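Input for the complex:
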Amino acid sequence: MTTLVYDGTFEGLLTCVFEIYERKLLHVKIQKGEWLSKALFEEVIQVITDEKRAGRVLQGLQEKLSAGGMQRLYAAHLAGMDDEDIMLIGYIRYVFDSKKNVEEDYGNKYVLRLAEIIRMVRREKHRMEAFIRFQKLQDGIFYAAIEPDFNVLPLVGKHFKNRYADQKWIIYDMRRNYGLYYDLHHIEYITLDFATSRPDNVISSYTEDEGLYQNLWKNYFKSVNIPARKNTKLHMRHVPKRYWKFLTEKI
Amino acid sequence: MIEERIIEKLNILADAAKYDVSCSSSGSKRKNENKGLGNASNGICHTYTEDGRCVSLLKILLTNHCIFDCAYCVSRSSNDIKRAAFTVQEVVDITINFYRRNYIEGLFLSSGIFKDADFTMERLVRVAKKLRTEHKFNGYIHLKSIPGASDELMREAGLYADRLSVNLEIPTEAGLKLLAPEKNRKDMIQPMGFLKNEIILRKEEKALFKKAPIFAPAGQSTQMIVGATPETDVQVLQTANHFYKNFNLKRVYYSGYVPVLSDKRLPALHTSVPMVRENRLYQADWLMRFYGFKVNEIVNDTNPHLDLDIDPKLSWGLRNLEVFPIDINKADLQLILRVPGIGLQSAHKIVSARQFGKLNWDQLKKIGVALNRAKYFITCNSSRFERRDLTATNIKQFILSQSHSKFLKNATTQLNLF
Ligand code: SF4
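Predicted:
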């Protein structure tokens, strides 16, 4: 068993694949970031991300996968789920070791796992598209804070840009401390310095009518409920509690 | 003060609109090409009510004043309730501001009838027109077509709205006579026929001239209340089928009657809402639209009602055991779709995956097949399969005993489908 340690980037992951084939490694573990374990006798390789090597693996993958298949693999890695890198490596190896395109071979555990990861990522992306609540600030910017389970912010930008083409907005991932800012033309990645103000509390800089519309929305949410049909379990399944703190109607 | 009044209006007019269960905001493809506000594609549920229903549109009445007295409706003229009416501008402002904050996908505007059909319809159309032209709003707009409104107004409505609907409310003519004697079914169906033809016409025009305006791109839908009158499921589903076929409806919604009024002609107050029946109707509706089932395969004169304890596909499977078992590695997609416990997604995955090798139980389970039901109806790449010669009753008992009363509790609603 050999442990590969890499920097967490997609290129890094592809470099790991290169190493595996070059050194003919059979059983590997994979880890992001720093190597921390002090245990002796462990085989550890610190993989340095190498554009050329990653590029060759990428090219190989592109020959075997459809464009959509590549995107799914990329999105699955981008999501940053714990302990899934080994499944992704397994998937890539299976792709290379098979003669034909195996994207739809759902009988294989790696292919199926990738499909599951993508389903989870998509669901989180949809949830963000649904649950983001903008608050209008005095300078006209619409601001929303989120804490998605996975790193899906890069995946939602397009949706919001298409929809809110005529308003400036910021969507900020509090957990990963970065955000998207749309200035009516382009989307930029930003990080905000919250040393002085709490990011999820921007009430002091609301526009005048922000309070009115939040109030109307809360009332609307209450009015549409039909008590005779109450079904809390179903409600909680659709809107899990961890999302509530950013939902205007739930605060 | 103004704030309080507008909140009160919203409470009254949202409350009165909530019994219309259709909430869909999908089926349109309106793009944001004018750098305006919004787009409409696959509807998003922005939140869920505490009874678990999707909230995707601002669903309100323009007014709950009404000259009619339909027994099943909270807004009926003889009901002693608070009345209110929005101005056109108020509806526009709330819609835009909710939309900008990502609360909603758009507006679903309905109304009680004040004065007459045209007077009411004209105001609904004015809201939609203002949103589209003054605010460059490309979000979803669903307007209720008021029975009896002029063709001219209906045509204008279609130019601004994504979807139009007339609610049949009561599945049969006799039922309607009983509960809404002032209404007549012909008036309700007439606008549906008009819109159907108009939609076809505009589509042809659009095919010829790219610049031709889009017309109600998400089509028409309707709603039927179930459980207010004694119709059987055959009657309900045949009516639905009739409208899908002859009026090209996109969706038929089924709304379990919520007893809000006491009236001799209606189920008593405190009768529970027929939520399981409603759920079964939606499942049957899906079988008709996506699984290739015909109405009379699902319900017929021998089986006029859907089973409440098991889903309609399982019922059909148990009545047609001679079709099974089928070999999952060979059968056509159409047949796989008919297996209880296999959904659309799983069926397609099976057909893709089996090209790479024969599938066994384990793989089927991982793909998402509900084996507790499916195992009685299929064989796969395994020597383990149901060899006993079980009767339909046996199978049903086995399945029910394993299913942790999910089918028996009143907890499921239509939303489980989506
Ligand atoms: S016409 Fe419509 S709003 Fe008026 S009572 Fe009948 S169902 Fe209700």
